[in-house]
Design goal:
Elements lengths: L1 E9 L16 E10 L2 E9 L8 H7 L3 H4 L9 H9 L3 E4 L2 H14 L9 E4 H4 L1 H4 L5 H9 L9 H17 L4
Parallel strand pairs: 1-4, 4-5
Antiparallel strand pairs: 1-2, 2-3
Helix pairs in contact: 7-8
């Protein structure tokens, strides 16, 4: 089974759904990896320029500085690669699936690219709520499962590495 585990870092939070696409945030960093069992078989990683400077608040949260994205290609440059990765997967995992899926969908609309998600979408926020009776952020889930935190949260590659470890463990425990 091909499982895509992905994360996006963005220029802000999603606005009310009645707001136009132009007022919704943009992806500034993407990392997705395909795993088969426990083996990573494919990776896609990039920064992209949203067309405006990254705010100080986003830099504080993610550590991504405006100069890291300025001059990078826009998301549309990568849209076919992202589409290919998503459509080649049997299932997609994210720690806040509704958010990451919406962000990818926004970018695909901006790029005028059609995207078909696989039927099996796994949200590890929702799927692990039963463990402690409330939603766990990725750091708390990692610490719950392994007794240790991970460092570097809110960077796509680091979050996907931690999420992959959590997902594999959750599958082994038959929790997901």
């Amino acid at each position: 089974m091909r499982t895509l585990i992905l994360d996006t870092e963005t220029s802000g939070l999603i606005q009310n759904s009645v707001k136009p696409l132009s007022q919704q945030p943009s992806i500034i960093e993407y990392f997705g990896q395909i795993v088969e069992g426990t083996e990573v078989v494919e990776e896609l990683e990039f920064f992209c320029d949203p067309g405006f400077p990254v705010s100080e608040e986003i830099t504080r949260i993610t550590g991504i500085k405006p100069e890291q994205v300025k001059g990078q290609p826009p998301f549309s440059h990568f849209s076919e690669s992202v589409r290919g990765q998503i459509e080649s997967a049997d299932e997609v995992v994210a720690h806040n699936m509704s958010y990451d899926r919406a962000m990818v969908n926004f970018e695909m609309k901006r790029a005028k690219t059609e995207l078909i998600w696989p039927a099996n979408l796994i949200c590890t926020v929702e799927g692990t709520e039963h463990l402690k009776g409330h939603r766990l952020n990725l750091s708390a889930l990692h610490e719950f499962l392994f007794g240790e935190p991970f460092t570097g949260a809110h960077r796509a590659r680091v979050d996907v590495a931690a999420l992959t470890r959590c997902f594999i463990e959750l599958r082994e425990r038959e929790e997901l």
